[in-house]
Amino acid sequence: MAHLESDFLKVSNEKGVGWIRLHRPEVLNALNRQMVADLVGLLESFDRDENIRAILLTGGPKAFAAGADIGEMAQATSVEMLHLDPFADWDRIRHISKPIVAAVSGYALGGGCELAMACDLILASESAKFGQPEINIGVMPGAGGTQRLTRAVGKARAMEMVLTGKPITAQEALQAGLVNRVIPVEKLEEEAMKLAEELASKPPVALRLAKQAVLKAAEVGLEEGLDYEQKLFYFLFSTEDQKEGMQAFSEKRRPLFRGR
Ligand code: HXC
Questions:
Q1: Which residues form the signal peptide (predicted)?
Q2: pTM recorded for the entire structure
Q3: Shared-domain flag, residues 61 and 99
Q4: 3 lies in a domain?
Q5: Per-residue confidence (pLDDT) for residue 6, from 0 to 100
């Protein structure tokens, strides 16, 4: 299956991992509408491709993304923003069923931080800086920043980040629970690829449902969440991969998962 590169995205596909690099370095990967639309289209096309089992999203050494493109929004009126509905594209990211690993070096600010948080796992290089600086340009986060950040790091830190606009370092992001790991800059992509390949080796249906169940925890109460988890758990007993996984364990061999 062919996956289209675009002006601002570099793409490859190896070892079951669909790999996307944000590439608009002259403006620190500022996310214009076309870039977001292309990115979302690509994520959906990876999601439909049976040969891809995990997705890796990265940027450049200086920036993962320094936010939405300010120039594109500067003169817009409320009504124009309402009609443009830029968040319709962003919202499609949460329906991607395959796990997405974000590998972040340099700035992940505003929409860049929100994009990383819309992924499932975040690996940060030692140079990464996460922040929601929208307050400094007269607005506030709009692509999930007040919601996902607060769920990830708690009210105290989220409030400080959103109200002061001051970014936090990779180490602070690790302590706060925003990222999974901090990695030396030169090792970031290698480690992110290893993690994505590891995910790609897992049984795809279980991987997809497990992702859904973890995301559900942020949305519903415990009783509903546990009920949802149990239903997905039972469902997995209808897959060949469950039979294969358990049989391989008994036979002391590696399982061969086919996504069925
Ligand atoms: C458009 C941007 C940009 C952005 C950087 N650039 N961020 N252009 N939108 N978000 C451009 C600069 O204008 C400049 O272009 C070039 O990238 C290099 O940036 P510099 O500022 O010269 O680099 P530096 O001094 O190293 O400072 C880096 C920085 C700063 C601290 C990241 O660029 C910055 O504060 N950027 C804005 C961050 C921000 O406010 N993000 C939130 C956006 S709102 P030229 O042509 O001058 O060389 C948002 C809402 C999300 O994300 C809602 C989703 C729709």
A1: none
A2: 0.97
A3: yes
A4: no
A5: 85
User: CB–CB of 89/40 below 8 Å?
Assistant: yes
- Do residues 69 and 24 share a domain? yes
In the predicted model, is pLDDT for residue 4 greater than 90? no
For residue 242, what are the domain limits? 204-250
Q: Is 76 in the pocket of ligand 1 (CB under 6 A)?
A: no
- Do 21 and 128 belong together in one domain? yes
Stronger pLDDT, 7 or 105, i.e. the higher one: 105
The residue whose CA has the least distance to atom 51 of ligand 1 is 111
> Is residue 71 within 6 Å of ligand 1 at its C-beta?
yes
Q: Is 111 in the pocket of ligand 1 (CB under 6 A)?
A: yes
Strand pairing report for 63-65 and 54-58: unpaired
* CATH code of the domain in which 210 resides: 1.10.12.10
Flag whether pLDDT at 105 surpasses 80: yes
Does residue 84 sit in the same domain as residue 58? yes
